[in-house]
Structures are given as structure tokens and as C-alpha cells.
Amino acid sequence: MAININSYLFTVLTLAIFMNLAISLYGIFARPSLIKKIIALTILADTANTLAIMVGYRGWPSPSQPVKPPVLTVLKPSREVIKEFASTSVDPLPQALVLTAIVIGLAVTLFLVFLTLQIYRLYGTTDVRKVAKLRG
Fold first, then answer.
1. Would you tell me how many other CB atoms lie within 10 Å of the CB of residue 15?
2. Least C-beta-crowded within 10 Å: which of 64, 74, 109, 115?
């Protein structure tokens, strides 16, 4: 029985993404350090972006049907050209949404780093258990 390499790679990629999600959620909820929580949150955002790109992908390329970029090169396309374009091109919407999510994620990460820096300046620690006790 021959193993289909495309199916195998897709399965490995899916498993890796969900393991990455689990590890990053563990880092967010179980680690007491705010720095580690920010790192885990960044990993979670990158994993979610990878999952969004994977959902928008039309399948692994093969020699019989390669995946093409979502660009029409013909000025006045016929029905056959449009049909081939729709069946072989990658959906650009998830890619555009991921670009937006990357910019928003960067802004949120910078805000959280600034907030953590302020907490460290005020309380001398980034451990959320110690900060909660200091709250009074």
C-alpha cells in the first residue's frame, strides 16, 4: 500500500498546528510570568494565522494541476479561462485577513510589552500571583 505524500504532509501539518495551539494555550493559562504569557500569546496568534492560510489553500500542488496565484493574466478572459482560474488559484481573502491580523497582533503585542514594563517598574516583578497580592 503506497502512502500518498500530500495527504501525509497535510496530516502532519494539521497535527503540528493543533499541538502548537495546545502548547501556546498552556503557556497563556498556566505560566505566572507576564513575559511568558506574551510570548505564548504571540505564538498563538502566529498559529492561528497559519491555520487561516491553511484553510484558504486549495490543496497541495501536483504536476497535473499546479496551484496558481490569484491573478488573471488575460485582459478579456473566456469562460474556460475563468473556470480554470477558479479551480486552480488560491483564495486571496485569507491571505489578506492574515496580513491585517499580523499588523493588529504587532500593535497588541507592543501594548502588552509596554504594560508589562510598567507593571515591572511599579511592582518590581512580572509574576501575576505577586502582583495580585500587592494589589491590596
1. 10
2. 64
